[in-house]
Every structure is written in structure tokens, then in C-alpha cells.
Amino acid sequence: MAAVAVVLLAGCDGGGGTTSPLLSPTGRPARTSAAAPAPSASAASPSGATPSAAPARGTATVTGTVATHLSTPWGVAQLPDGALLVASRDSGRISRVDPDKGTVAEVGSVPGVSHPQGGEGGLLGLAVSPDFGSDQMVYAYFTTESDNRIARMIYDPSRPAGEQLGAPDTIVRDIPSGTLHNGGRIAFGPDGMLYAGTGETGNRSLAQNMSSLGGKILRMTPDGQPPQDNPFPGSLVYSLGHRNVQGLAWDPAGHLWASEFGQDKWDELNLIEPGKNYGWPVVEGIAHNPAYVDPVAQWPTDQASPSGIAYAAGSIWMAALKGERLWRIPLNGTHTAAPPQAFFTHTYGRLRTVVALDDHTLLLTTSNTDGRGTPKPGDDRLLRVSVS
Question: How far apart are CA 139 and CA 35, in angstroms?
């Protein structure tokens, strides 16, 4: 049966946003005669709570530069006092950034970090303990010469600059590592558990292998143990069938969203449900295969290559590396409310991490010094963005 495509005209606003066609009833992206395939909203999104839908159109405006000359920034975590910890992927250093003064000071390095030349490993995600006021713990996901692992360290700002991190206490090891597809995003959920997105390191079979931590989203206690209510008893695995997860975020209803790199066709935004299988390497993008969960939205890989995500103003905001733009995905509960909208296309180069400071303010890092971008004077930088 022929597809009947629903198409919206592309538009612009003061923030440079553009919209894209909806998914056709067949599940294939609608096309125009002159345009490449565009982001599509799934007609088969999982069901769930339905708060008021976000407006179809939003805004995003860079209101300032918080920091410049950052070296391969990757993970960003906010401390209770509002300061930021920023991880340097290649050097293994963690710096403290004062978002009001714009100052950057090294707090210490994570020992054992390995960054293969030209590869994607190194010091990746950061997270601050929900009980930081009492335990002063900072968590890091990083690559060593043998694996990816998650460790926690005491951060004591009263110690001398550059010596403020305690010895790492490894809570998870033996996450597969490789030159590519190391995942790396970690975040504490509203349930107080620590979540981690991992990659399959280019070994596709790991994504479906329940004995491997690669190609999964993991859920653990702050001590790195499997919670009793995990979907697979005694396992850290929360969901499987992932290629390379680099973005994790929760909406106010407690739904977990994750961004995922596709291979040649489709990058994905997924709604994560415990114990579900997201299909890689059997399927990529929306497949309407009942054995796997379809993404809620998908993009051609040259328009995304998604890394960090955050929730604000009723939408998921997704940083795109190869696509060099910030995507806004307006939500209506667990569905998209309208086609995704792009901002800053090719303006700031590769974009890596998004942090929501409040419901209308984001922090956004560029990633032009990672060996795949074209650094401009001042790169890499941390930008403040006002959104609606």
C-alpha cells in the first residue's frame, strides 16, 4: 500500500530552529523531492502518562559563554553549590567550572584512564552522588587498558588545587571497551539508583548477550550492586539490544529516555522500559517488529550522531555530534507532540553534552577538540542556552 506522508514545511525562528516531516503510516520517513530523509516521530510509541503536550514550536537562544578552552569535554555534573565538574576525555582530568565567574580550575585526575589515539574511550561520564552533602562522592565512567569501569571518588575542595580527588573505588568493572562504541553516560535516577549507558564496542553480538555488560543500559545501587527490583535477577542489565548509548534523562513523570547511535541509517531516541530489548543488531530504527521496542523518534545519521540529552520545557533536548545541532523533541507523555526541531545547525560545531539547570536553562558543551571536529578559537566551550 502506498505511503501517505504527512509533511510540515520547514521553518525558522530567532533561534534558528527547523522542523521536519512526520513519519508516514507505513513507518517510513516522509520525503520531499529536494530534501534528505528527516527526523521522524514514531506512530508506535509506548503508551503511558499523558501530561499536557509541549508546543509544536520552541525556542533556544545562546545567552552566554560559561567557559572556553576546554580540552575534549565529555561528562558534566552539577554540584549542590551550582558549580560544575567537567571531565576531559583524553587527559583524564576533572575541572571545576564556576558558571557565574567563568573560572576553570583543575581538581584532579582519574588514575588509569586510557585514551587510544583516534578512539572514543577515555574519561567519559560524571555523576554526583544524591547524598553528596554527606558522602562527597563523585562517580566516573572511564576506559582503562582492559575495560570500561565505573568508580567513585571523594571530592574534597578544601585540599590543594589539583589534589582534591581521593583514590577511586571501582564499583563496576569488565564493561567491554574498544576503540569505538564505549557508551559512557552515567546518571542518578529519581529512584536514587545509578544508570549507565554502554556500547557494544563494534562487536554486535554483545548487545544481545545477557552475560555481557556491553550494548546495555545498566542500573545499580550506589555501591554498584544489582537492585532487587531489576528486571533480570542478580544482573545489572536494565535493557538490552543497544548499539551505543550516550544520553540518559528523565522527564517529570519518571520516564527514562536514552539517545543511541545508529550505524548507517537511523539514530534513535528511545523510551526505556525495564527488561525490554531495543533490537540491535537485528534492527536499526523503527522496524515494527513485535520482538523489539521501536524508537520514539529517529534521524538519519548525518543529522544527529546523538550524545547527551536533557529534559526541559516539556521537551527532550539532544546534542548532535556529526549533525552539529541541538535537537528539540517536544513530548506529549511518552509520544512526540510534534516533529523534532533543530537549532544552531553548523553554528558551534559538534555538540556533546546537555545539562538542564532549570526548566528553561541548559548548559551545552561543544566537542570540536575530540579529533573529529574543526576547532575554532576558544574551543571547546560551555554555552548557556535559554529554551522554551
Answer: 43
Residue for grid cell 562487536: 203
DSSP per residue over 22-62, as a string? PBPTTSSBP--SS-----EE-TTPPP----PPPPS---EEE
Q: What would the pLDDT profile of 134-173 be if each residue is shown by its tens digit? A: 999 999 999 999 999 999 999 999 999 999 999 999 999 9
pLDDT band for position 21 (50/70/90)?
very low
User: What are all long-range contacts of 34-38, with beta carbons under 8 Å and residues at least 24 apart?
Assistant: 35/10, 36/300, 36/302, 36/303, 37/300, 38/299, 38/300, 38/303, 38/339
The maximal CA–CA distance of the chain, rounded, in angstroms, is 69
Q: pLDDT tens digit string along 219-228?
A: 999 999 999 9
Handedness of CA 336, 9, 40, 321 (dihedral sign): negative
Other CB atoms within 10 A of residue 209 CB? 16
Contact between 267 and 299 (Cβ < 8 Å): yes
- Nine-digit cell string for 221: 545501587
Q: Which amino acid is at 79?
A: L
The DSSP string of 115-138 is --TTSS-SEEEEEE-TTHHHH-EE
What are the Cα distances from residue 38, in Å, to 22, 269, 299?
A: 8, 14, 6
Q: How many CB atoms are located within 10 Å of the residue 325 CB?
A: 25
Per-residue pLDDT at 4: 28
CA-to-CA distance for 86 and 77, rounded, in angstroms?
A: 7
- Dihedral angle sign, alpha carbons of residues 55, 262, 193, 274: positive
User: For the chain, what's the residue count?
Assistant: 388
Cβ-Cβ contacts under 8 Å for 230 (sequence gap 6 or more): 219, 236, 237, 238, 274
